[in-house]
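Quick one, T. Sequence first:
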Amino acid sequence: MTKRKKVPFQVVAEAGAKETVLTLSGTIQKRYWSDDKYIDARLIRDQLDSVKNDITIRLNSPGGDVFQGVEIYNYLKDHPSHITVEVMGEACSAATFICAGADEVVMNTGTIFMIHNAITGLWGNKNDLKRAVEMMETIDDSILSIYEERTGQSREQLQLWMDNETFFTADEAVQYGFATSVKSKPKENETDAHLTAEFKSMVNEAVAAALATQSVAAQAANPQPEPQAQPKKSLLAKLRKGETKE
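Structure tokens:
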């Protein structure tokens, strides 16, 4: 596929006839300089704003800034294209919001999915710390709303998982609704059978098209003469042959 646009470090989007592939590998954080090695919402908008076809996002991220993650989530959720996120290594923390914003989430074999409560660094007097705790509780509530909408799990169950900083295997991520499927390598004989059937179908279609073309060409080169009407026998001829009836 031809490259649509290349951004240094983590992000490369490729445009093809059927889909656009966007690779995201790294930490989610606001980029202040063009050479910052992070993924942020603006970077993704620059890549996908003009895309009309299906989108596949290949994701490997430990997470990062919660607000950038939520902005990416809402951008993907509102994008008109059908979006599939394929987890290539890990989808942890804020990176799970990217999954939540997609139409489909495919976990590769051996990949990891992790959710937890919001984390911050605290400094100040008791009033500052109290306000910080209230802010963190509000952020956790917002995160719970995203997971609840995506998975259909109860708020209590999700809160328990977040409290315990829970890691899920690929199969568990699907089981609990964070992902839709696990991508496994097809067996060799299944791949061969698929390719053989596809090849046979292509050959049959090509042969049918060639025969149809040949038949049309032959008819054009050798048109069949139209049948001539038989002349009617005269009454005298019928009398001679005794064909008249009483």
